[in-house]
Structure formats: structure tokens, C-alpha cells
Design brief:
By secondary structure, the protein is an alpha+beta fold. The protein contains five helices and nine strands, in the order E-E-H-E-E-E-E-H-E-E-E-H-H-H. Strand 1 (4-9) and strand 2 (12-17) form a beta hairpin. The termini are far apart.
């Protein structure tokens, strides 16, 4: 199935096939979600079938919106599709642009709408095995320290978020814990 995502080509936003956008390193729209619970972050280990960064740990979920899809609706859709999570109400935190090599001669050059959702203690998680091979809750500060110590276990974008945008995404949330 061909997935078309919004990407900038010659200064104009247009639908581009997802793999082509990554092969050409085109700037494209993306969505990232962090689900939190009392200072802990739900992270996922990407399925081995993923065409880039398989087996690496990432934030709760991340994706590309479909053409003309609202980013908030996209965040809800992917929480359900990747993790079977429903009933959360993510809050928009920031818009972030980054460019990173993700292996296999692929480049993520994303303009990301970042969302954070507060989860109840009894959150039901049902990972889609074609997307996610494992999940775990990890203390935010432990995650930040481990990403610094062992970056090879984490996706480039999670490293960038925690290194360069930690306060914009989590600042007031972590001070409230």
C-alpha cells in the first residue's frame, strides 16, 4: 500500500510517497505523541519489520499525517493503530523541526507537531505487532539519562527531543510531578 504524506517539494506542500520523502530527505509533516503517567513515559520498541530504525526504542508513537489530516486527529488515530490506546486527549506542546539520518540511506526531515497525553494508571495497551514489539513505562529522568548513556538503543528523533527540546515538551509537566 502506497502511503502519501505532506512534503515540501520546490517550496510547495504536496503529497509524496512516504519512502520517497525519506529517500530524498524532503521536509515533511509528522506527529509525535508522548503518553505520561506521574513522571513516567510510555515508550515503544519499534517492530523489526519497520523499514527504518527497527528494534530501537522511541516515544509512545510517531507518524506522518495523511494528506489534509488534522495533526490532533492523526495523533489519536496512531495511538489506536499502533498501541490500541483510546480515550486519551493529547495536548499540543510544540512544533519542532529536525533532520536526522535514520539508516539505510534514509533521512527524516520532519516538521513535527508534538503532543503529550496524561494516562490513567489502568491504561489498556494492546500493541500492534507489525508496528511495536514491546512497550514499557520508564521514569522520565531515567529515560533521559539512558538515552545519553546508550544512544544506540534509541531512535534519532527521541535523542533529539530529549537533548534539544526537553523543556519545550516536558518542562512544566516535569516540574509539577
Amino acid at each position: 500500500m502506497t502511503i502519501m504524506i505532506p512534503a515540501w517539494v520546490n517550496g510547495r506542500l504536496q503529497p509524496v510517497e512516504k519512502l520517497e520523502a525519506h529517500q530524498r530527505g524532503l521536509k515533511h509533516k509528522a506527529v509525535s505523541v508522548f503518553v505520561m503517567n506521574r513522571g513516567r513515559v510510555l515508550i515503544q520498541q519499534r517492530a523489526l519489520e519497520k523499514y527504518h530504525t527497527p528494534g530501537l526504542w522511541a516515544n509512545t508513537c510517531c507518524t506522518h499525517p495523511e494528506w489534509d489530516e488534522d495533526p490532533a486527529a492523526c495523533a489519536l488515530r496512531r495511538l489506536d493503530e499502533e498501541l490500541g490506546i483510546t480515550g486519551l486527549y493529547p495536548t499540543h506542546r510544540d512544533q519542532i523541526e529536525y533532520r536526522a539520518d535514520v539508516g539505510n540511506d534514509l533521512i527524516e526531515h520532519e516538521l513535527v507537531e508534538v503532543y503529550v497525553a496524561d494516562a490513567p494508571n489502568n491504561l489498556r495497551i494492546t500493541p500492534n505487532p507489525s508496528e511495536v514489539m514491546a512497550t514499557r513505562w520508564v521514569d522520565f529522568y531515567d529515560l533521559s539519562a539512558d538515552v545519553t548513556r546508550h544512544p544506540e538503543h534509541y531512535t534519532p528523533w527521541l535523542q533529539i527531543y530529549l537533548r534539544d527540546y526537553q523543556d519545550a515538551i516536558f518542562g512544566d509537566l516535569m516540574r509539577a510531578v
